[in-house]
Specification:
Strand content: 25-35%
Distance between the termini: 26 Å
Structural class: alpha+beta
Number of strands: 10
Strand order of the largest sheet: 2-3-4-5
Oligomer: single chain
Shape: rod-shaped
CATH superfamily of one domain: Pleckstrin-homology domain (PH domain)/Phosphotyrosine-binding domain (PTB)
CATH topology of one domain: PH-domain like
Number of helices: 3
Order of helices and strands: EEHEEEEHEEHEE
Length: 206
Amino acid sequence: MPFCPMCGTEYQQGSVFCSKCGNKLGSPAPAAPSNPATDGGAVIQKVSTNFDSEETILWTGKPSGIRSSIKDKAQINATSYTVTSQRITIKSGLIGKKEEDIDLYRIKDIKVNQSLKDRAMGIGDIEIVLIDGTMKIMLEEVKDPNNVKETVRKAMIAEKTAQRTTHVQKEVVKEVVKIPCKYCGGLIESTSTKCPICGAPLNPFK
């Protein structure tokens, strides 16, 4: 008795279709597409997409109260603040220098504290509360504190939105392993249970 050229199942003379894989009997197996270079019969396709955003500086400043102004003249005011699109950086110390970074997405609340004297001088303290509620960051004696607060608030909202959007997209690497169909030779995904080219049922792991 003859055998199906697709799946190798024996069939009766005169049958039009294979009872197992459904191939039309008497017709040649469909030609396999041209295969890329393979390693041991398998092809690994990798797709990588990088969505990293560039960090930009939005504001820089330092304490600007009376004592800080005196320190400026003596060139001993070592505290500075930097707000970027991703974080707040506080640098302090002349000899033992300290640098602290606060990621914007960790911020829960921002407010400005001003005394009457601070208002007259156009300065204020910006108090930043982090999302865990256990830590507060203070930007002291900042000039035009309400505008700086608004800059931080807008950057915080933008960064939190970006963090949610790119959490999965930041670096996507997908591997697709393909192996040749043992009946028609076409490349199929290793998890397929049926060849999309010839239609033969199969389990590539058996």
